[in-house]
Write a structure and sequence with these properties.
With 124 residues, the protein is an all-beta fold. The chain is built from no helices and eleven strands. The strands form three sheets. It has a four-stranded antiparallel β-sheet, with no helix packed on it. It has a four-stranded antiparallel β-sheet with strand order 8-9-10-11, with no helix packed on it. A three-stranded antiparallel β-sheet has the order 1-2-3, with no helix packed on it. A hairpin with a 4-residue loop joins β6 and β7 (63-69).
């Protein structure tokens, strides 16, 4: 399996292409509104949609493993993985249009704290 490119699209799907042949390999369906953010980590592809969800795809099979709800009509416009915390977990950070960053544990798929994006940094 060669290198692949992915794109979140206005048709509410994630499109996957083979880079060398430029062939369209997959159209991943599940979001109900446009896909506006993507992030790859380990064997996961995370896609954030205007439908206020983040879908977790296994890039080996392109199956949707989970749907994470952002809530409060918040669109996940930025996705990322933080360096591991003290307990070894690498949290998924979801920055939403509600002004908050949702923190999810990708080993247990449990939501953690929410961080207010407007809060000043604690410099202690």
């Amino acid at each position: 399996k060669g290198a692949q490119a992915v794109a979140g699209c206005l048709d509410a799907r994630v499109w996957v292409w083979d880079i060398q042949s430029r062939a369209l390999l997959h159209r991943l369906s599940g979001h109900s509104r446009p896909v506006v953010s993507l992030h790859h980590f380990r064997h996961f592809l995370f896609s954030g949609g205007v439908d206020s969800t983040v879908r977790v795809w296994d890039h080996r099979t392109w199956k949707c493993l989970r749907v994470l709800e952002m809530g409060e009509n918040s669109v996940p416009y930025s996705l990322g993985i933080s360096p591991p915390l003290h307990d070894g977990d690498a949290p998924l950070l979801l920055a939403g249009t509600n002004g908050k960053v949702a923190v999810w544990n990708i080993d247990t798929w449990q939501p953690g704290q929410e961080i207010d994006q407007a809060a000043p940094a604690d410099n202690r």
